[in-house]
Amino acid sequence: MYRGRFAPSPTGPLHAGSLVAALASWLDARTHGGQWLVRIEDVDGPRCPPGTDAVILGQLAALGLVPDEPPTWQSRRGELYQAALDRLIAAGQAYGCACTRAEIAAAMGPRAKHGELIYPGTCRPERGGTRGRPARAWRFRVAGHIDWQDRQLGAQSQDLDAEVGDFVLKRADGLWAYQLAVVVDDAEQGITDVVRGEDLADNTPRQIALQRALGLPMPRYLHTPLVLAADGHKLSKQNGAAAIDLADPPARQREAAERLGLPAPAAHLGLADTLAAAQQAWAARYGPAR
Q1: Which of 113, 170, 234, 237 is catalytic?
Q2: Per the Swiss-Prot or TrEMBL record, what residue ranges does the short sequence motif 'KMSKS' region cover (predicted)?
Q3: DSSP readout, 42-55?
Q4: Does 237 show up as a binding residue in the annotation?
Q5: Known catalytic residue: 113?
Q6: Helix axes 16-31, 271-286, angle to 10 degrees
Q7: Is 126 marked within a binding site?
């Protein structure tokens, strides 16, 4: 059975860009007669103001997007992440790392594509490990290419060694990294299809590598076009994107449907009929065949 999800990070209220991702995931689940879940990705607790999760859930309800099961919170799932990390360590696929960001930058320089640093594997056990220094983080050992098929973007490929390097699973501050948490959560919740913004497509090869290492099923992926701000950059909380104006929920959903490249539902329709019209348009493009 189809199971999809919307997984917002509660660093601020939903904005127009996050509504597009929420609507797309909801439409795909409804088109395929499946279930739609909401997962609050608050694994980075210091960046999540108290109460923002409740604001997001209230926004979704006002917009007609109600999950089929009670929401889950990543901050309550640390034991699952630790169990997965322990499995990777036991299999030799994860190792402790003592390097600082400054040391990594000095060794490799910045990585423009991801805005991060490509880790050169300095603390791999076969290279001497941490050399007596305490481990600051835990990293996943990457190897080779990951090829995958996206329902929107088509054939995709990434060289994990050259473009990513051994990536963090548990951070130096003790917080769980997004890559491990999302893979564990998707598998534990039985997610069959991931529909999300195109900015996260670059994360997919890392998640597939972890799924393979942990023996977990790989969902199908569909990455939707980004909503851009006036300056051409991705609309985000970091660049001041405004919270969704809920005075007219059908209008907000019409705008989100248009940004997904769907025909705009008629302006006179109420919320339920607006969503039904958007679903019909989504089905014509992406479903229901699987």
Answers
A1: 237
A2: 234-238
A3: --SGGGS-TTHHHH
A4: yes
A5: no
A6: 70
A7: no
